[in-house]
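Class, carefully examine what follows:
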Amino acid sequence: MVALDLLGRRTALRVLWELRGEPLTFRALQDACETNTRLLNTRLTELREADLVAHGEGGYRLTDEGRRLAKALKPLSEWAEQWGKRQAGKRAPE
């Protein structure tokens, strides 16, 4: 599946996550994603070509399609949060 291939690439989901709110400049997005310039440029190019991210006044933002994807991923995010809590509860106390 093309969508899963794109979303499975390093930092792709992180970029989408960081853009869930207000637009971010390249530098702010780079800092938020804790990644390097080259990788972020590559990922932004791919996400723009997929019509998930756009660049305009104020920086990068999710497109309508990107917001639909974020909404579709919300149940996965909720599951991951609960799973993380369960995993933390399984760790043996020191």
